[in-house]
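My convention is simple: the sequence line spells out the residues, with the fold written below as integer tokens. I include a record here:
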Amino acid sequence: MPYQAVVAGVGITEATSPRKQTRSFVELCQQAAHAALEHAGASSDSLDAIVVGDIDGFEGTVLGAKFQTRQLGLGSDIPVIVVNTGGTTGGNLMQVAARMVRSGTHSRVLCLGGPTFYGAHDLQAAINTNSPMIVEQPLGMGGFHMGAFAASAYQARYDITLEDFASIVVADHTKASKNPFAHLRYTVTIDDVVDGTPLSSPLTQPMVCPVSTSACAMLVTSRESAGALRTSPALIKAMGTSGDPYLGGGKGDFAAMENLAILARRVYAMADVRDPYNDFDVVEVFAPYAHMQPMQLEALQLCEAGKGIELIRSQESYQGGSLPVNLSGGPKCTNAGVAGELAPYVYVAWQIMGDAPEEIRVENAQRGLAHGTGGTFFQFENLAVFESTKESR
């Protein structure tokens, strides 16, 4: 029989720049893992398994997750499952753990996402090797150039200005300034963003995520097992993943996230979501480039095509609004690789449990949506719908 999987505890460390990092990779992971267990009121010896993320090419190691889990102080006999799906690794951790719990083979699984970018001496060079070798690499294309494809296409279709893109960055920084766990907690102006260092038109440096260091953890349990814990767990109501062709030439439309729209329809059907804007109380999307956030909100049916920027800069997307979006500040203000990809799931589950930091909390949140993406042209997506297990409003 299938079991229900819930999130019973979360842990996250304060983010910083790798240059200002005061804790080691293992220490950050320890802090996040033990925070998740403490939040749930669970002991380490009650764990059935650990699911940990790893992106070998960016970390300068091979299966670094396999050895670092033995240094967490959680016991030496816990099975470890290593997940490496590139940029989607963090978002897929919870889905692997949830399937383990739903199958009935495990009742308590700890998901752990550590900082990814600590091992690469030239990070941008490492990221650029992720571009397809057949066409894109010989043309000298890297991460910024491929990110600009969608930005340019979206800009042309909807007559978007640089100031419009900049307003997204302003919103993210304003929200991050209230999040005690965010990396970039300062506010910016439209002019700061528009006048930033040009990267690949139309992108400027402030429109692109920072390199951060932090760790996230999440305790996924069966609903029955959660009954013995101290939190009001968040039910993982529905989840899914999808993928597009790897090569840029295989994408149908750079001005719309068609693959995400298809995945959203499938996940919404499983969760019985019929009116996304009104059905969700909180949303966290993984948008490391400014233009991605409005495109994602449109693909997720949270607004009409071409209206994503209007939603983001309206008060409705802020704390107290009708649809709070990326109250954490999102990856635009904190991106620690695997930890950054797991973070949307951590923040939404935290909100649904009613335990998110007061500065960014959505009161009485009943249903939330978390999203992750990865790939050279962000062709790979994952989604999950969380619901409260408390009595409905």
About this structure: The CA atoms of residues 23 and 177 lie 23 Å apart. The first strand starts at residue 5 and ends at 12. The chain has 14 helices and eleven strands. The chain has a mean pLDDT of 90.
